[in-house]
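User: Quick sanity check before I run a bigger batch. Here is a single chain. Can you write out its predicted 3D structure?
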Amino acid sequence: MLSDHDETVLAGIERRLLIEDPALVRAFGVPPPRIRAADHSWGTDLATAIAGLALSLVLRMGPRPRSIGPHRDRGADGTTGTGG
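Assistant: Done. Predicted structure follows.
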């Protein structure tokens, strides 16, 4: 019996052989492996779409330029806190 790792390696070899020399695979009478699409529920697809939309909006906004001139940290009351 093969371990999970060995089965994965063997499946990879079979796929590469099928791509590189399908005639050889047919000569042995081995049916080509069926490749299934990933099973996604509509909830997963919706969450992915929303996340992609949010990311694209954030990237679209990009960095905002700062005002030209000296930058001073202002407090909540609008003062610089330097006293005076």
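The chain is about 50% helix and 0% strand.

User: Great, the batch can go ahead then.
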